[in-house]
Structure formats: structure tokens, C-alpha cells
Amino acid sequence: MANTLIELKCGHKLLVNLPDDIKIKAAIIQNYKNQLCPKCRRQKEQALQEAKKLRMDSIAKLCPPLVHQDKKIIKHAEKIRHDKLSGLDDMFDKLSRVHGFSSIQEEHTFNHYRNRTIARFCKQDDVLWWLNHQTSPIESMIDELKEKTFVIEGQVFHENDK
Questions:
Q1: Could you list the residue range(s) of the whole structural domain that residue 22 is in?
Q2: Is 60 among the domain residues?
Q3: Contact 141/84 with Cβ under 8 angstroms?
């Protein structure tokens, strides 16, 4: 075993005790080179959490309040809606971070569909709809809320699936 100074993805260096086997050593070094140091990883996570909070605050402003006679049911439905919207936001955020964009136009198109999908979720102001979809996967909810689009004589028409 030998101590080796490895430069991480963030540029910081880390002293690691590595085995003598060259293949294992190379694999471990390569793995470390693709990682952030603990401090940079915490900063990145904190930045992601702050961005998530800002996105969720703006999403919450888009959603009308749920209406029902029983405040307990409203509270339960609002939690379901918040959790589903949070999951939807996570899905879009992961897609944008993992896949990236090849052009500005691609990013604008992605953001358009992201905002449109979130708006469709927010339009659902029926408490019973949220209660009925408590265990539904987000993907099936997206499919349920899609609009049908028709082009007739060069004009685009939208029709809700419902």
C-alpha cells in the first residue's frame, strides 16, 4: 500500500492509500478523478437544494388553492400535489443535468415542455383528483394530462384528452 496524491474533478487534491496492484490502483485513481471532494460535493448539493426550493416556490405560485369543505382533506391533497410536483420537478431537473443540451433552441424547447407539463399539473384543482392519483406514477399522470393536437388545413387545434 502506498499513499498517493490524487487530483479530483474539482481540482482539489486528496491523499489516498492505494493497493500495490496496478490495475486496481488505476481503477481507483480513475474513480477519484471523476469525483468532487467532500467540501465541493456539499456545496454542489446545497446549490441544488437552493435551486430546487426556488423552483418549487415558483411552481406553488402557479397552482390555485384546492377547495373542499373538509380542511383535513385539503391538507392531505395539497401534500399529495406538492409531492407529485416535486417528483415531476426532480424528473425534469435530472433530465436536464444528465443529458445536457446541444443548443440554446433545444434548451428553450425543453423548458417550454417542462413549464407546460407543470402548468397542466397545477390546473388540477380538484381535491378528489389528487386523492385518486396518490399512488399513481408521475409518468402515467403526465400521459393522462396530455393534450391531443390536430392540424387541419394548416391550423393547429388542441383538445384535452378528457
A1: 2-33
A2: yes
A3: yes
DSSP class of residue 161?
-
- DSSP label at residue 101: -
Report the alpha-carbon distance of residue 15 to residue 26 in Å, rounded: 15
φ and ψ of 152, to 5 deg: -125, 120
Q: Is 142 exposed, middle or buried (0-12, 13-18, 19+ CB in 10 A)?
A: middle
| 156 three-class SS | strand
Residue 16: partners with Cβ closer than 8 Å, 6 or more residues away: 3, 4, 5, 6, 28, 32
The pTM score is 0.74
9: Cβ–Cβ under 8 A, 6 or more apart, which residues? 33, 34, 35, 36
Do residues 15 and 90 share a domain?
Answer: no
Of 39, 52, 49, nearest in space to 10 by CA: 39
- Count of domains observed in the chain: 2
* 152 pLDDT above the threshold of 80: no
Q: Are strands 2-7 and 13-18 parallel, antiparallel or unpaired?
A: antiparallel
Contact 8, 35 (CB under 8 A): yes
pLDDT single digits (tens) 54-113: 999 999 999 999 988 999 999 999 999 999 999 999 999 999 888 888 889 999 989 999
